[in-house]
Design goal:
The modification N6-(pyridoxal phosphate)lysine is found at residue 309. One of its GO terms (biological process) is carboxylic acid metabolic process. Its cofactor is pyridoxal 5'-phosphate. This protein has 494 residues and is α/β, with parallel strands linked by helices. Helices cover 45% and strands 12% of the residues. It contains 16 helices and 11 strands. The strands form 2 sheets. It has a 7-stranded mixed sheet with strand order 1-7-6-5-4-2-3, with helices on both faces. Strands 8-9-11-10 form a 4-stranded antiparallel sheet. A hairpin with a 2-residue loop joins strand 10 (457-461) and strand 11. Helix 13 (365-401) crosses helix 16. The longest helix is centred in the C-terminal third of the chain and has 37 residues, at 365-401. Bound molecules: pyridoxal-5'-phosphate. Pyridoxal-5'-phosphate binds at residues 80, 151-153, 198, 200, 248, 251-252, 277, 279-280, 306, 318. Pyridoxal-5'-phosphate is lined by residues 80, 151-153, 198, 200, 248, 251-252, 277, 279-280, 306, 318.
């Protein structure tokens, strides 16, 4: 494929992409293929001589498409949204065009410098504290800064590695421990999560090999200061060394918000690294009215949210900020002659390979830049507010119907509900067998998925099976939420 052929075929593909987006809502959102379907449809070896482009295009439609669940459909309400947008796609096309591996500034200065600037833009857009800014108001470099990771899970790992570095350094300087003692101490490090923290916290701990304490959340699914303090006290008396705590702004199950101020106080007193995971809900902070809910994050050591969830930026674009990059860079910086750094004036030079696990990195800031420029802050806020309004509408309609109960406050775009026990039996709620209520609700989720006009998933909270509707599609409108509501009513009745 030479440039001329690419020009022709590339235009055809752009047409196919635009057609796909225009027809998305006419397709059932969920793929219904059976495991192994594709193995039966495609050859089991790469072709010896080149396949024709038209053949491959045809296979996309006939073989790949059936195995796609359409996350970008307006009728997709599963998990959390994974927003795509045309501006982001265009940014990604340029990234693909350059195809540079910007691990050090020297690899392609624009890759590093745009990321630094755009992450500061984003920090300001969500009202993040100045501590997290790479460039201070006076134009000099700050201690902190942002970096784009592939996912919130990677951000969690990276934050925990920095936390371990900080803890070891503190122990070393306060106790003059020998290397042997330090190695032994590493095995006593313990990280704190709530039972609502995303699984990525536990995974990060497994990867770095530290202990974890899962602290029970309160009745509102929040990690509280009191519960955290109690857990820490117990662990310290057992000889463990607390070093990391994760507070969540918008948990996965219910979008609950932990006691972020209380956690900050504990973290400061106990010298813990304080990571705030706002993977989904962080995008809401683009709207100033949500910022009072995030009080406490200004005291965090690291803060993360996924622009690829609810902020119009195609996967992958997970924004991580640290207030002080020293520990992160110390932990992840490894010198080799084949990874040269710039000599001389190094102001504004960030070698982002020291801020992440992999060496190589894509030019991901381009898509974020396109999104922020082409939507503007006002467009991004309208996107968020529209979904929050639709979620509140759905909540109201479900309550009005009388057969449903809302199982967690609707703060952002997520509505968590269930069919209430008294809608199943004509007995008071508290005399109904919980297993039966759970079965009715898991059956409702299965029925909605089988019906396949809309897609959503269920979850379990405090022993109750519930239905989760996450509103947040880029192309979704109130019309899609109307369909969702009608499907819920119809299948509940059935
Ligand atoms: N944290 C929270 C609160 C989440 O809801 C999720 C995913 O939904 C994650 C972390 C993990 O996100 P990622 O897929 O970017 O690792």
């Amino acid at each position: 494929m030479d440039a001329g052929e690419f020009r022709k075929r590339g235009k055809e593909v752009i047409d196919a992409i635009a057609d796909y987006y225009e027809s998305l809502d006419q397709m059932p959102p969920m793929s219904t293929v059976k495991p192994g379907y594709l193995y039966k449809l495609i050859p089991h070896e790469a072709p010896e001589s080149p396949d024709a482009f038209d053949e491959i295009q045809k296979d996309i439609q006939e073989k790949i498409m059936p195995g796609i669940t359409h996350w970008q459909s307006g009728n997709f309400f599963g998990w959390f949204p994974s927003n795509s947008s045309f501006p982001a796609m265009i940014g990604d096309m340029y990234s693909t065009m350059f195809d540079v591996i910007g691990f050090n500034w020297i690899c392609s200065p624009a890759v590093t410098e745009l990321e630094t600037v755009v992450m500061d833009w984003l920090a300001k857009l969500i009202g993040l504290d100045k501590r997290f800014m790479a460039i201070k108001e006076d134009g000099t470099e700050g201690e902190g800064g942002g970096v784009i990771q592939g996912s919130a899970s990677e951000a969690h790992i990276v934050a925990m590695i920095a936390a371990r570095e900080m803890a070891i350094e503190r122990i070393q300087s306060s106790t003059q421990a020998s290397q042997d003692n330090l190695d032994a101490m590493r095995h006593r490090l313990i990280a704190y999560f709530s039972d609502q923290t995303h699984s990525s916290g536990q995974k990060a701990a497994n990867i770095i090999g530290c202990k974890t304490r899962i602290v029970p959340s309160d009745d509102d699914f929040r990690l509280t200061k009191a519960a955290l303090v109690a857990a820490i006290d117990k662990d310290k008396s057992a000889g463990l060394i607390p070093f990391f705590v994760c507070g969540t702004f918008g948990t996965t199950n219910t979008t609950a918000i932990d006691d972020l101020v209380g956690i900050a106080e504990v973290a400061a007193k106990e010298h813990l690294w304080y990571h705030v995971d706002a993977a989904y809900a962080g995008a809401a902070l683009t709207c100033p009215e949500f910022r009072p809910l995030a009080k406490g994050i200004e005291r965090a050591d690291s803060f993360n949210f996924n622009a690829h969830k609810w902020m119009l930026t195609n996967f992958d674009c997970s924004a991580l900020w640290v207030a002080d990059s020293t520990h992160l860079v110390n932990a992840l910086s490894i010198h080799r002659e084949y990874l040269p750094r710039i000599k001389g004036d190094t102001s504004f030079v960030k070698d982002y390979r020291d801020w992440q696990a992999p060496l190589g990195r894509r030019f991901r800031s381009l898509k974020l830049w396109f999104v922020m420029r082409m939507y503007g802050a006002s467009g991004i806020r309208a996107h968020i507010r529209g979904h929050v309004k639709q979620a509140k509408w759905l909540e109201e309609k479900l309550v009005e119907d009388g057969r449903f109960e809302i199982m967690a406050p609707v703060i952002f775009g997520l509505v968590v509900f269930r069919v209430r026990p008294s809608a199943i039996f004509t007995t008071p709620d508290d005399t109904v067998d919980p297993d039966t209520v759970n079965k009715v609700n898991t059956d409702l989720v299965k029925a909605i998925q089988a019906d396949n006009r809309v897609f959503l998933v269920g979850t379990k909270i405090k022993g109750n099976d519930v239905v989760r509707a996450a509103i947040g599609s880029t192309i979704g409108t109130q019309e899609n939420v109307n369909i969702l509501f009608q499907v819920i009513l119809e299948l509940t009745t059935k």
